[in-house]
Amino acid sequence: MVKIGNIALGEFPLLLAPMEDVSDPPFRAVCKMNGADLMYTEFISSEGLIRHARKSVQKLDIYDYERPIGIQFFGGEIDTMVECVDIIEEAQPDLIDINYGCPVKGVACRGAGAGILKDVPKMVTMTGEIVKRATLPVTVKTRLGWDDDSINIMEVAERLQDVGIAALSIHGRTRCQLYKGVARWEPIDEVKKNPRIRIPIFLNGDVTSPEKVKFIRENFDVDGVMIGRAAIGNPWFFNEVKHFLKTGMHLAPSCN
Questions:
Q1: What domains lie within the chain, and their CATH numbers?
Q2: Does 109 participate in catalysis according to the annotation?
Q3: Which is the catalytic residue, given 84, 102, 109, 255?
């Protein structure tokens, strides 16, 4: 049984990734009906929340039928991120997720998202302060590193666990790869195999077919997978995966 804090997710849960302009309430509702075990909102700007910007505040809308659900936010200023914890908890999600993985230039070049991978001490300090402020479990989504010369995910995982995060989702690319090339799953597996790591580790990146999920479950020690682009236009993907894992067969098209 995989658990984040006291949130039970079952065996090898399937997570819906937070995707900007995709993971809105209608899309999440359909994914939930079709087997998603844990979902996240679109990522929310901490600066937008502090300013009470309408677009940011609207993203806090969650519904009981979506549970368990996490609200994900991002930012580059520690004080602002910590202040946002109170705003997020007023929306009553089941957990809070910090985005340390967005590779978009406008985010990363401001030291937010994957940009903070260039400053691990700041990442650790920020995370620790957020954990102290929060009453809910805090999780993190990140990448392998900034580029191929600075893959530091093992250090990041250990240090974030040490300051209290409850789970870690890792995209198997660096920031500089963006979404190009092939996601590397082996470094994520190595993190999970590290005897120091006690928290759930979820694999993200190129999880695009039931066969791939079966391969991951059978060959890697990770606790589950986070599914992103494979669910766009195909929210029944979660049920397809679960059916394939159980039976070894694909769902007939008429079942979708």
A1: 3-255 (3.20.20.70)
A2: no
A3: 102
